[in-house]
Amino acid sequence: MSVAGYPRERIESVLRKARFPDCYRIVPSRYGESPLGTIPADSRFCSRNAGYTVLYAAPDFATSFIETVVRDRFVHRSRRDVALSEIALRCWVGIRSQPETVLTLLDLRGDGCGRIGAPTDAVQARNHAAGRALAKAIYAQHTDIEGLLYASRLTGEDVYAVFDRGAGKLEAAETGTLTDHPDLPDVLERHGIGLVV
């Protein structure tokens, strides 16, 4: 979409300058030594050839787990099992803002998309084309914006998508193996998910 599609006066109405809250990120264990690292990859707000990367994190551990591990894998399935080996190959990361820093975020929760003239598919659709187009335009045309804040379509809870230019304001507070996170049993029980060996 051209810059005319997202004029600054509309963008300003949904900008937030705020500290990044304590959040969770789930990554493959092989990246445990650089838990804030990102690589070009296909996701809701990025593609492999976008020219930037995005770090996703959620204040709610359950949302981070559902967004990363579960996704839509159980749609129309009677069994809701995940291999224990899949969980064991991941670690969780606690992320927070570096001291005295704030992020400039585009708030797409609620009526955010409508207020800037973006399609609601950008945050709600299983297909990520609209989200990628929106993020690419925002990244290129509004260079002060460091990320997006949106509601998970899977849980309704907040998710932060931080562009590479904002990730330097974050730090990893703690890490651990996903199988050992204290909230994991409750998440599995609530969502009726079994672990299979």
pLDDT < 50 stretches: none
Terminal Cα span: 47 Å
* Overall geometric form: globular
Rounded to an integer in angstroms, the radius of gyration calculated over CA atoms is 17 Å
Count of the separate structural domains? 1
Give me the count of strands. Answer: 10
Order of helices and strands: HEEEHEHEEHHHEEHEHE
- What structural category do the secondary elements indicate? alpha+beta
Mean pLDDT: 94
Largest β sheet strand count, sense and barrel closure: 5 strands, mixed
Counted by DSSP, the helix tally is: 8
- Amount of helix: 25-40%
Adjacency order of strands in the biggest sheet? 1-6-7-8-3
User: How large is the share of residues in beta strands?
Assistant: 25-35%
Describe this protein with a few key phrases.
single chain, 26% strand, five-stranded mixed beta sheet, three-stranded antiparallel beta sheet, alpha+beta, globular, 197 residues
In words, what does this structure look like?
- It is a single chain.
- The protein is 27% helix and 26% strand.
- It has eight helices and ten strands.
Write a brief caption for the model.
The protein is built from 8 helices and 10 strands.
Question: Mind sketching the topology for me?
Answer:
Layout: H1 8-12, E1 15-18, E2 23-28, E3 54-57, H2 61-70, E4 81-83, H3 84-88, E5 90-97, E6 103-107, H4 112-116, H5 121-124, H6 129-141, E7 147-151, E8 158-163, H7 164-167, E9 170-177, H8 184-190, E10 194-196
Parallel strand pairs: 4-10, 6-7
Antiparallel strand pairs: 1-6, 2-5, 3-8, 5-9, 7-8
